[in-house]
UniProtKB/TrEMBL annotation:
Signal peptide: none annotated. Residues 11-77 form the HTH gntR-type domain. Gene3D superfamilies: GntR ligand-binding domain-like (1.20.120.530), Winged helix-like DNA-binding domain superfamily/Winged helix DNA-binding domain (1.10.10.10). The keyword Protein biosynthesis does not apply. This is GntR family transcriptional regulator.
C-alpha cells in the first residue's frame, strides 16, 4: 500500500471515528462530564490511536470536548445558560433560514419530511431515535436549503448544543412540536417565506418556554 492509500485509509477511519463519537455525545451515550479515555475508546471502536486522536481533536476544536482543571479531556457539560444562548442564536438565524428555504427547497424533500411526520403522528409510541431523525432532517435540511453555508453551519453547531442538553436531561416529549413542525412544512410547501419565518420563530420560542417551565 503506497503512502497516499495509507493516508486516505487513516483519514477515512478518522472521519468514521469522529462521526461515531459525535453520535455518542449527541445521544448522551457519552454523558456530560465523562472522562474521555482514548485507549479504551480506540479498543471499543477497533481503531488505532492515530484516527482516535484526530477525531478527539476535531471534537475538542468544536467545543464538545473540553479540558478540566487537571488538563484531562472530558465531554462538555451543556448548562442551561449554554442551552439558552444556543437557542437565542437559533432564534436569530433559523427563521431567516426558513424564509430563504421556502424559495429553493425541493418539493420532494418537503413531501418526504411530511411523510416522516405523519408516521410519527400515527405511531402511539414512536421510537425516540425516529423523532430525533426527523428533527435533524427538518432543521438541517432548512439550513442547507437556505443557500447560505455559514447560516447552515451555525444552525448545525447550535443544534448540537441544544440536542445534547435536551437528550441528556431527557426533556424531549414523545411527539414534540407536531403542530409547529406541520406549520413549518406547510409554509415550505406553499413557498410562503414570511409564513416560514413566523412558524420557525414560534416553534423555537415554544421550545424555549417548554424547557424553562421544567426549572
Amino acid at each position: 500500500m503506497d503512502g497516499d492509500s495509507v493516508a486516505t485509509t487513516e483519514g477515512s477511519l478518522a472521519d468514521e471515528t469522529y462521526r461515531t463519537l459525535l453520535d455518542d455525545i449527541l445521544a448522551a451515550r457519552l454523558s456530560g462530564g465523562a472522562v474521555v479515555q482514548e485507549r479504551r475508546l480506540a479498543m471499543r471502536l477497533g481503531v488505532s490511536r492515530s484516527p482516535m486522536r484526530d477525531a478527539l481533536g476535531r471534537l475538542e476544536g468544536q467545543g464538545l470536548l473540553v479540558r478540566n482543571s487537571k488538563g484531562v479531556l472530558t465531554v462538555r457539560v451543556i448548562t442551561l445558560k449554554d442551552y439558552l444562548n444556543s437557542l437565542a442564536m437559533r432564534l436569530l438565524i433559523e427563521p431567516a433560514a426558513a424564509a430563504a428555504a421556502c424559495a429553493t427547497i425541493d418539493p420532494a424533500r418537503v413531501e418526504a419530511l411530511a411523510a416522516m411526520l405523519d408516521a410519527i403522528d400515527a405511531d402511539p409510541d414512536p421510537d425516540p431515535a425516529v423523532v430525533w431523525r426527523f428533527d435533524d432532517a427538518l432543521h438541517d435540511g432548512i439550513g442547507e436549503a437556505s443557500g447560505n453555508p455559514f447560516m447552515a453551519e451555525t444552525i448545525t453547531q447550535m443544534r448540537r448544543y441544544t440536542t445534547i442538553f435536551e437528550r441528556q436531561r431527557k426533556l424531549g416529549r414523545r411527539k414534540p412540536g407536531l403542530a409547529d413542525h406541520r406549520a413549518i412544512l406547510e409554509a415550505l410547501s406553499a413557498r410562503d417565506a414570511e409564513g416560514g419565518r413566523h412558524a420557525m420563530a414560534v416553534h423555537l420560542e415554544r421550545v424555549r418556554e417548554g424547557v424553562l417551565s421544567t426549572y
